[in-house]
Specification:
Number of strands: 5
Strand order of the largest sheet: 3-2-1-4-5
Helix content: 40-55%
Number of helices: 5
Shape: globular
Oligomer: single chain
């Protein structure tokens, strides 16, 4: 069984990456490993975010694991580490739309994942 690693943050881009990864996992019978970032609001604990994601994945009927990343390395390190540890066949990340100047510099997290992942990476944009 293949494994898909998806980075998740509570944002339109994170939701778009999430939806694409869940759909692809269902289609390919892949296992989904979700790496969740900090909660969107200070009142929401990381544990609550993980519980909500677990519930949504259970409803979607996808084999899964959810982890909240912690540490000074940040999201790129957590996603790359999990992709390597699980021998991922694919990494999925959300991508913000950028201005012409913003396109020159993709963003450190996205850029690191795209350049350093040992497997294909899908960058999903949120709908306009």
């Amino acid at each position: 069984m293949s494994t898909i690693v998806v980075g998740y943050v509570a944002s339109p881009e994170g939701e778009a990456a999430w939806a694409w990864a869940v759909d692809h996992a269902r289609t390919t019978s892949a296992r989904l490993v979700v790496i969740a970032s900090d909660a969107p609001h200070p009142d929401v604990s990381p544990e609550t975010v993980v519980e909500q994601l677990e519930s949504r994945l259970g409803e979607a009927g996808v084999e899964h694991e959810v982890a909240h990343f912690v540490g000074s390395g940040g999201a790129a390190d957590a996603i790359l580490d999990h992709a390597n540890r699980h021998d991922a066949s694919l990494v999925v990340i959300g991508q913000r739309r950028r201005s012409p100047v913003g396109k020159l510099v993709l963003g450190s997290t996205s850029q690191r994942i795209l350049l350093e992942a040992d497997c294909p990476v899908v960058a999903v944009k949120a709908p306009r």
